[in-house]
Amino acid sequence: MSPDIDETFPESINPELVPEYVANKKYGALLPLLKENEILLCADTIVVLNNEILGKPVNNDDAVNMILKLSNRWHSVITGFCIGNDRRFILKSVTSQVKFAVITEVQADYYVNNFNPLDKAGSYGIQDWIGMAFIERIEGSYTNIVGLPTQEVFTVLKSF
After folding, report:
1. Which of 9, 85, 72, 86 is nearest to 46 (CA)?
2. Which end of the chain is more exposed for a tag (fewer CB within 10 A), N or C?
């Protein structure tokens, strides 16, 4: 299910808390639809570079600009997720660090025009060509960078 919610957040909020804030909004919107014996999982992922949130790009030019900002730099990928039902609720986040190699404007433009980065935080998918060709190093959960920290989610689900 995909909730129809406003994913904006207060400007005063610490960027590291934004994914949990948005995941919790999604959870609140979908909880009334939950049936008995079901568990709801909601998540949101952002990319943070020097305390700036790089969300989903608004167009191809924005996507190229984001990728060029990430070129030859470390950044954080943060996923907030909540899992619950009518009796229990757990809210967590996972942070991974990613280092890109140098990416030229031609390479960024190629990626944007041949893949689909407009639905991805930070304008890239680690599982795409750009991730395979330009990510020098990661610290933390690979699946978190893809968009859902599956090991951490599984650990929480085992407690239900």
Report:
1. 9
2. N
Give yes or no: 119 in active site: no
Question: What is the structure's pLDDT at 38?
Answer: 93
Domain ranges within the chain, ordered by starting residue:
15-157
Kindly state the tokens that stand for 56. 């989903």
Parts of the chain with a pLDDT under 50: none
Q: What is the pTM for the complete model shown?
A: 0.92
The confidence score (pLDDT) of residue 27 equals 95
CATH code of the domain made up of 15-157: 3.90.950.10
Residues forming beta bridges with residue 81, ordered by sequence position: 43, 92
Q: Which of 4, 6, 44, 62 is catalytic?
A: 44
